[in-house]
Amino acid sequence: MNLTIITVGKLKEKYLKDAVEEYSKRLSRYCKINIVEVQDEKTPENASKKDEDIIREKEGARISKYINDSMYVVAMDLKGNTMTSEQFSDFIGNLGLQGRSNIAFIIGGSLGISREILQRADYKLCFSKMTFPHQLFRVMLLEQIYRGFKIMKGEPYHK
């Protein structure tokens, strides 16, 4: 299975980079993982709704360069569906059984994901109704993907 995480912005904090590296290493037993960082746009202090839409569109255009037709696209979206870790494991496993082994997870910037990317998405997933920094969310997503593979394989993992 090939998993691509396309995310807006670069990690700056060493502890987050270390966590991403650790989960990527753990995941290498189960799948091929590729993390693509696209440049984020600076958001002015008092940005209008129109300014925010333009920023999301620019970031979305950068994201779309890394999405190809063979990818099953999962957009991380506050309005998306929620699931348990077990359901997430089944979700990934079922995609593989359906021959959808090229999955892209999209993490937007601080303003979210552009309308175009959301329309392209095959599935919209929400981890929580809470808001998280997108840099931290990358680690959370990798951890849940790793947990999903452990569940799928019937291997022990802390609860």
UniProtKB/TrEMBL annotation:
GO molecular function: rRNA (pseudouridine-N3-)-methyltransferase activity
Entry's EC annotation: 2.1.1.177
Catalytic activity of the protein: pseudouridine(1915) in 23S rRNA + S-adenosyl-L-methionine = N(3)-methylpseudouridine(1915) in 23S rRNA + S-adenosyl-L-homocysteine + H(+)
CDD domains: RlmH-like
Top-level taxon: Bacteria
Enzyme class: transferase
Binding locations of S-adenosyl-L-methionine: G108, F127, S128, K129, M130, T131, F132
Keywords associated with the record: Cytoplasm, Methyltransferase, rRNA processing, S-adenosyl-L-methionine, Transferase
Pfam families: SPOUT_MTase
Subunit structure: Homodimer.
Annotated function: Specifically methylates the pseudouridine at position 1915 (m3Psi1915) in 23S rRNA.
Record-given protein name: Ribosomal RNA large subunit methyltransferase H
Lineage of the organism: Bacteria, Bacillati, Bacillota, Clostridia, Eubacteriales
Gene: rlmH
